[in-house]
Amino acid sequence: MGKIRASAWLPAALLAALCTSAGAVPAKSGNAADVDPRIGTGGDGHTFPGATVPFGMIQLSPDTAMPDFKHAYKWAAGYQYGDSSILGFSHTHFSGSGHSDLGDVLVMPIAGDVRLEPGDPAKPGSGYRSGFSHDSERVEAGYYAVTLSEYGVRAELTAGRRVGWHRYTYPAGKPAHVLLDLRPSIYDYPGKVLWSNLRVHEDGTITGCRQTRGWAPGRELCFAMRFSQPMTSRQILNRETNVSYKGFKGPGNQAEDSDAQQGRALVGVFDFGALKKPLEVKVAISPVSEANAVANLDSDGKGWDFDARRAEARKAWDDVLSVVDIDAPKAQRTSFYTSLYHAMLSPTLSMDVNGEYRGPDNNVHRAEGFDFHSTWSLWDVYRAQQPLMVLLQPDRSVHFIKSLIAAREASPFGILPVWAYQGLETWCMIGYHAVPVIADAYIKGIRGFDADAAMKAMVASATYAPYGGLGDYMKLGYVPIDKEPEGASKTLEYAYDDWSIAQMAKAMGKDDVAQAFGKRATNWRNAYDEKTGFMRARKTDGSFREPFDPDAAGYGSDYTEGNAWQYSWYVPQDVAGLIGAMGGDQAFTAKLDSVFDAKVDKSHFAHVEDITGLIGWYAHGNEPSHHLAYLYDYAGAAWKTQARLKQIMDSQYAPRPDGLAGNDDLGQMSAWYVFTALGFYPVTPASDEYAIGRPFVKRAALHLANGKTFTVTAAPLDDAHPYVGSVTLNGKPLDRVFLRHGEILAGGELHFTMQAQPGKAWGVSEGSRPASTSSYKR
C-alpha cells in the first residue's frame, strides 16, 4: 500500500485538466440549465448539491461533515457550503429537512496511501477526508463534480431512479483505491449502527446492509456495487476491534482477505492499481434486501456509460421543469427553476423494481399498479409543495396518495404517515396532515385512487385517540395543555385537518362524515382568547394557561415552533370568522401589520433553531407564517398583500448558497416561492381557490397535463410598479382576489396591470374575497 502522505500538490495544468469533465457535456437547452443546486447549501437551507432525478430513490451527494447528533442540525443534508473538506459521497439525503439522518453507503476515492479513519477536518492529512475548493465544483441538475485536492482525484456523480453513478479520474501513476465506509451517518447517534454486513461476490459485485437506530429506529438499507474495472486486491475490515490495516485478525479470526464480514464498524478498501482510464462505480440501494439491490442494479444500472446516464438525468429534469416557462432575468430564472427543482425532489421513490417496499410495520410489502413513495414531511409540504404537485404533476399525485393509503394499511396503528421516510415513521411534528394532501387532490379533480379507502384512512387518523391529545380533543373540543404540550397549535391544526375531511366527504356524498368533521373544524374558536386577542392553550378545566406571554416560543409553550404572534392566524378554513373574532377588517389588518412591523430581537429565538427569516414577528423560515401575507386579501386590503409579498421575496430569497431564509423542508419553502412568483397561493388546501397576490415574473406559461396552457402576464413589472391596478382573466375584468383551480385547468390568460400606487378599491367587497366556512359582514 505504500506510505501515508499528508498532502498532495497538483501542478496548475493538471488541476485545470481535472476540473474539466471527461466526456460530452449535455447541451444547455432546457430549463434545467437555470437550476443551481448550491442554493440553500449554506446557512439554514439544509439542501444538498449532489446528483438526483425527480423524486428519485438516490440522492448522491458529498458529505462535508457528519457530526455527533447533538450538533447535526446544520448538516441535516450532509453538506455545508462553508466547509473546506469532503468526507466522501453517500447515496441518501434529505433536502431541506429540520432533522438529520441518512448518509448511507459512503464512498471515497483515494489515490496513493489509504487511511481508514475520517480524520479531523481541522487537520488535513489526519484521515481519509480530503480538502476541496468550490472553484473545482461543477453543480448542475443531475450532476455534481469536484476535485479532491488531497488525492488529485476528479470525482463526478450522476444518478438514476435507483442507481448512483460515479466516475473517478485518478492522477497518472498513483495507486487507485475506493474506500467504502458503513460507519458514518448524518445523525451520528452513539451506537447508531446496530449491525452491518459486507461481502464480495465471485463476479466482483459488492453487497451489504446496515441497520441503524437513528431518527427512524431499526431502519435497514441494503446496497449493491460494481466497478468498471477489476480489483487487484481488497480488504474488508471490522474497525470495532481492529486498528491496523495490514496483518489484522478480526472477530472469529477471519482471514485478512475475507470475502465477507459482519459487525458494527465495517470498512472496505478496494484496490485497482495505477489506472490508465477513469474508474466508474455504480451503486443501487434497496430498503428490503441485498438481492433486491442487485436486481435494482441489474435493471436500472445496465452498461458503463457515465455520460449517457448524465444526459438521461439532465433530460429527466428538463422534462419536469418544462411544465412552466417563464420570461424573467437570469438571476430570477435561477431562483425560480431552482425552487421548482427543490419542490420536485420529494417524496422519494422507496420501492424496488419488483414492487417491494418496507412499510411502517417494518415488514416487506408489494405495490400493485403504483410506485411507492416515502420521505413525507407532512407538516410542511401539505401547505404548498403538494398542492403545487396537484397543479403541475397530477399523475404523480396519484402515486403519492396511493403510497399514503398503502402506508396506512401497513401501519401497526392504522393511521396515515406523520413524518415518514423509507417507509418508516418518526412521529415528528403535529397534526394529521396527510389528510389535507389527499383532500386537496380530490377536491381539485385527482382520481385514480380508492377514494373510499382514502376516506377510511383519513377518519381513522383523525380519531386515533392516543395520538397527540386527540382523545381529549374529541371530548373537549381542544387539546388541554396540562395533558399535552403545544396544545394551542394542536387544536388549531387538528381543526383545519378536520375541515379538509369535511370537504372531501361532502364531495363524495358522505354527508354524515362531512357534518361531523365540519363541526370539529370550528374548534379553533376554543383556542381564541377575546381578552388578549391571541390563540392560547386551555387547561382541562377550561381556563387558559397562565401566565401568558405571547412572545414565548418552542417546546413547553402553547405552540409548535412558534409563538402567539405567529400561530394566532392559523385558521385557513375560516379567515372570515377570525376577522370577525378580532373585531373586523380594520382591527384585523392593524394587528396583522403589527406582526410584520414589530421590532423583534432575533436572539429571542436563539433556542428555537427553526424560527428564522424574521420580518418583525413574521418568520418566513418556518411554515406557520407562510400564509400570513395573503390574509390581507380576506380583509379587503389586497394591496397590503402585494406590498408584504414584495418585502418577503426581496429579503428571503436570493440565488446564492445562503439564499434561503430557513429550512427548505422538502420543498415547501421553494413551493411558496414558485406559487408567489406566479401570482397566487393555496392558503387553504382542500379548497379549489387560490388567493391572488401579485406576480413576480413578466410572463409564465403553465403547460398543464390536460394539454391546456395557462399563462400569467404582468406589465409594467418593475420596482416602480409594485401594486396591482387591475386584473383580467381571458380578457374580462376579474374583480375578485381569488382564482379557481378549474379556471387554471381550462387554460387561458391571467393578466395583471401593475401600477405605482396601491389599488385600494380592488377586492374590498365580501363577494370578491376568498371563501371561508363562515362569513363576516362589515
Please characterize this protein's 3D structure.
With 778 residues, this protein is of the alpha+beta class. Among the domains are: 12-319, Beta-galactosidase, Chain A, domain 5 (Distorted Sandwich), CATH 2.70.98; 323-351 and 610-778, GH92 mannosidase fold (2-Layer Sandwich), CATH 3.30.2080.10. The chain is built from 18 helices and 37 strands. Helix 9 (451-462) runs antiparallel to helix 11. The termini are far apart.
What's the topology here?
Blueprint: H1 12-18, E1 61-63, E2 85-86, E3 88-90, E4 106-111, E5 130-131, E6 138-140, E7 143-148, E8 153-159, E9 163-169, E10 175-181, E11 193-200, E12 206-213, E13 217-227, E14 233-238, E15 260-263, E16 266-274, E17 279-286, H2 290-300, H3 306-321, E18 324-327, H4 330-343, E19 348-349, E20 356-358, E21 364-366, E22 373-374, E23 376-377, H5 378-381, H6 385-392, H7 394-410, E24 419-421, E25 424-425, H8 434-443, H9 451-462, H10 470-476, H11 487-508, H12 511-520, E26 528-529, E27 534-535, H13 564-567, H14 575-581, H15 585-597, E28 614-615, E29 618-619, H16 638-652, H17 668-678, E30 680-681, E31 689-692, E32 699-703, E33 709-715, E34 723-729, E35 732-733, E36 738-740, H18 741-745, E37 748-755
Helix pairs in contact: 4-17, 6-7, 7-8, 8-9, 8-11, 9-11, 11-12
Keywords for this structure?
778 residues; alpha+beta; Beta-galactosidase, Chain A, domain 5; GH92 mannosidase fold; nine-stranded antiparallel sheet; six-stranded mixed sheet; 18 helices; globular; disordered N terminus
* Beta-strand residue percentage: 15-25%
Strand order of the largest sheet: 6-7-8-9-17-13-12-11-15
- CATH class descriptor name of the domain at 12-319: Mainly Beta
Rg over CA atoms, rounded to whole Å, is 27 Å
Gross morphology: globular
The fold-level CATH name of the domain at 12-319 is Beta-galactosidase, Chain A, domain 5
Q: So, CATH architecture of the domain at 12-319?
A: Distorted Sandwich
- The total beta strand count reads 37
Structural class: alpha+beta
Counting H and I runs of at least 4 residues, what is the number of helices? 18
Low-confidence stretches: 1-23, 242-255
pLDDT averaged over residues: 93
Largest β-sheet summary: 9 strands, antiparallel
**How would you describe the oligomerization state of the chains in this entry?**
single chain
Helix content: 10-25%
Q: Cα distance, first to last residue?
A: 82 Å
